[in-house]
Amino acid sequence: MTLTVRPVERRDYRDLLAMLVALWPKESTRDHGRQIRSILNGKPRSILPLTMFVAERDGALVGFVEVGLRSHANGCDPVRAVGFIEGWYVASHLRKQGIGRALFAAAERWCRSHGCREMASDTWTDHRRSVKAHVALGYAVEGNFVNFRKRLR
């Protein structure tokens, strides 16, 4: 079985959309579609660079990673941009087979090519499998915190 990790392409739209919906079911399919199209068109909805890589195994998409640059991330050097894993998904029946590791490796290479010296990511504290997977990939927990947000009018 051959695994290929590569930048997302237009032909990936449908399968990628299904994976985004599986990962973030509370978001609308329409919003996920906009996100994919913005990246495919080279105009992601972000100020800093953002891209996606997909994992393809024997001709089928089996995972993706969305990675971008951020001006800062908890625990990282605040004077330079940091690579950030915005989203990460591997088909449930194929987890623990190195696909996630291959996706993270592609994301990390992309971030190094953009001058990053650090990577960051986040997950919900109750997503124990995600926490465990991040730690297995060499990421350290940078504390538990609560995020707040207020809309300005």
Largest sheet: 5 strands, mixed
What would you report as the Rg, rounded to the nearest angstrom? 15 Å
Which architecture does the CATH hierarchy give at level 2? 3-Layer(aba) Sandwich
CATH superfamily: Gcn5-related N-acetyltransferase (GNAT)
> Would you identify the regions where 5 or more consecutive residues have pLDDT less than 50?
none
Q: Give me the secondary-structure category.
A: alpha+beta
CATH class: Alpha Beta
Mean pLDDT: 87
Distance between the ends: 53 Å
Q: Strands of the largest sheet, in order across it?
A: 1-2-3-4-5
Overall spatial form: globular
For the secondary structure, the number of strands is 5
Number of domains: 1
Q: What is the succession of H and E elements? A: EHHEEEHEH
Estimated helix fraction: 25-40%
Q: Can you describe what's shown?
A:
With 153 residues, the protein is α+β, with helices and mostly antiparallel strands. The chain has one domain: Gcn5-related N-acetyltransferase (GNAT) (Aminopeptidase). Helices cover 31% and strands 24% of the residues. It contains four helices and five strands. It has helices at 13-23, 29-40, 99-113, 128-136; strands at residues 3-7, 50-57, 60-70, 82-90, 119-121. Strands 1-2-3-4-5 form a five-stranded mixed beta sheet. α1 (13-23) packs across α2 (29-40). The termini are far apart. The model has no long low-confidence stretch (mean pLDDT 87).
Keywords:
153 residues; alpha+beta; Aminopeptidase; five-stranded mixed sheet
